[in-house]
Amino acid sequence: MQPRDLQPEHFAGYPPEARKLIVSHLDVLRQLPLSFLPSLLREAIEYDYRFPAERASLDRELAGLKALTPAQMGRRFQAFAGVSLSSGLAQFDWINLPAQFVEQQSAYLWSTHQLDAFRKAATDYGAELQASAPPEPLPVRRLGIAVIGQGVPVYEGKLFRNLRAHGTYFSRIKPGQNFDLLLREMEQRAKAHPVPYGHWYVDGGQAVAHSAEITAVSYTGLEPVRAALLRRMQAEIASPGMGPEELRTRMARLAPADLGMDKAGDPVLDRFKVKVLTEGSGTQIYSTTFAQWTTREILRRAQALTLLVRFAPRQRQRPLNELLASTKGTPELDPLGSLIDADMAAWYHWINQQRLPGSDRSSFLVWFEGHREAVAIASSFPQGTESSSEIGLHELLSLATS
Amino acid sequence: MTPFFDNSRNPLETARALSRSRRDFLRGAARLALGSTLMSASPLVRGEAGRKKRKVIVVTFGGGARDQETFAPEGQENIPNMLRELAPQSSFFTHVTNQGILGHYVATASLATGVYETLNNFSAVAPEHPTVFEYFRKDLRRPSSDAWVVAPSNGFNRIGESECRNYGMGQGARVILPKHLLSAATSGGTPDFEHLLRDNYETPLYTPQIGGGEVELQQMENILRLSVEDFMTHARTVSSPDELSVYIARRLMQQEAPSLLWITMHDIDVAHSGAYSLYIEGIRRTDRLCLELWRAVQSEPEYAGNTTMIILPDFGRDSDYDAGGNGFQHHRTGDPASRTTWMMALGAGVRQGVVYEDPVQSVDLVPSLGAIMGFSAQQSTGKPIRELL
Known about the structure:
The structure holds two protein chains of two kinds.
Chain A: H1 16-24, H2 26-29, H3 37-44, H4 52-66, H5 70-76, H6 78-81, H7 87-91, H8 98-111, H9 115-132, E1 143-148, H10 161-164, E2 168-170, H11 179-192, E3 199-203, E4 215-218, H12 223-238, H13 244-252, H14 267-279, H15 287-302, E5 306-310, E6 314-315, H16 320-324, E7 333-334, H17 335-354, E8 363-368, E9 374-377, E10 385-387, H18 393-401
Parallel strand pairs in A: 1-5, 1-8, 2-10, 3-4, 3-5
Antiparallel strand pairs in A: 2-9, 6-7, 8-9
Chain B: H1 11-30, E1 33-34, H2 48-53, E2 55-61, H3 80-86, E3 90-97, H4 104-113, H5 132-140, E4 147-150, E5 174-176, H6 178-185, H7 191-197, H8 217-224, H9 228-235, H10 241-255, E6 260-265, H11 276-299, E7 307-313, H12 336-339, E8 340-347, E9 354-356, E10 360-361, H13 365-373
Parallel strand pairs in B: 1-9, 2-6, 2-7, 3-9, 3-10, 4-5, 4-6
Antiparallel strand pairs in B: 3-8, 7-8
Helix pairs in contact in B: 3-11, 10-11
């Protein structure tokens, strides 16, 4: 099957909104090279379960492609058209299994040394897309908050090494500040600028009570889902002929109901949670990885206006000698290791936030929970400087977002 | 605010910048000299007599470490031993490129064959092209006891010999998988322990079936002079699989004294779990183990004074700035940071305290070993690194 042969009935297996979108753009899709189209379909097939920002992005992309003349289309996809694919890939059911196709295509590109060319074509395409279809202005400047170090009484090392160069390091945050203060600030933002899936709270432990305007995900809250997933994976691994590719394929097909999630839940959010656990490496095992990857995906997919992330201690990795001793019991926690994990995760939080539209006006705050250290990054703060003035988190946030 | 993402730099420029960063840092911190000024006189021991006694140990990291956690200024605290003890004694190559597939098994196979292999990274299959062990044994008529591989996970059990018709079965290295031995010695272990044994961190819940020429538990006593009880007693004192690998390697050096010993470490690759602190711990442990191995070389009569040790990661890890990746966690983007790494050569025939910044490729390793040891890596697509000749 080649893209030029596409017909509406080929998409009968797609969810309704996705089918409608695809069929209304079939003329465009028929012109796209096979090395590119399944990547687009991978996004489109999930359209019914996508966040508003993702839908808007896909709508813009398709509208932009529709507006191109044939000559412009040829130029836009020239590099992709130059990528050669195997006959096996051409015969693959890329319409109904676009994600699996992309995975196999990736392996093929690596093995035929075409990955670098493909990578350049994709990067150039993304840049052209951004330039040709600028996103809508944001209703409020984006704000990221990372709270790290829960359970660490003292830390002698240097925190925020990567972030300090981009903002102001505060060494005298007022004593007595707490997480609830940040959550309340966030709730006010969410109330003032109500946007579906626009304001998020991620907790690496148990989420605290929050208002309904906030979308929340927590590691502890997903414990039954994680347990169900690990049981399922173990069962799959034990089945004959199972390999890593097949395992990934089966994991990708899992729906919330397969992991015991309530059918009455939010289908978009539940699907997102399942993706975090099935696509993220280590998210099932370490709470710090879970919080970091969830943060990345919220920014990449939902393009959150506000994202508050609180890290909690992850389980300790047991050394070989302990494992051989066969002692069992409740896993111990590793607060210090988790602080180091979270410090790096905060850096990635900010980097991923800066990849989004409006980055020149965005704000970021990272705080060592219960301690006096923080870094604030915003146009109102000088870069690479330190402040020894005593300041409260509320005041810091006001300055960062004013 | 200052623009954060600089997209104007092309991949080649980025790779060169990484190389320059390593060079500048090493020159400052370890007082190494630039190699281009010292190229005229090679100290390599030449002649058949030299070659017969020559031993080579190759240490690869299956799980690359990035500059910012190692040789860049902010990473130096993680590699005190390589920096202060090993680098000053080494020829250091700042710009090693891997143009192949960035999976650990296939990349290690590529290092061992001198060809960018395209095998399935997650299958227990032999490399397509002859390995360095086969070239070495065939050309120099060496017995199987003279070439050994100590490798981390079960997937590496076919690394010792290729499927090439003129080489292949029975002509390669013997492979020892310490964790496989551990698994055999502790049959019926705990679920946690089983999880550790499946340490292919790229696919942590999947392990290919064993089916190669690796050493089995019952052979351990004959080869290593090590009883299962003693092996287990020692295993209970180490904290990681790589420590166990180094213990086995040292045992091999004492008992078999192979002329070609290849050790692949893997602890760093815990980075795939996404826990940064564990990745850093892995780097620090590997740094310590490299020094431990080097000291073992100095203390073993069969190795002292006639051994060349080469240390290199199989590749790097993704940059923080590539949107397609997730920083240190993986090596999936194919960006310059994941393709560019370094190599350190120490010991016999190697000029000490020199930094070479001209680009070399990871497939150049095998023909370079051929030139050092006196065999011909006929099918390798790499070329001998002149600074090692």
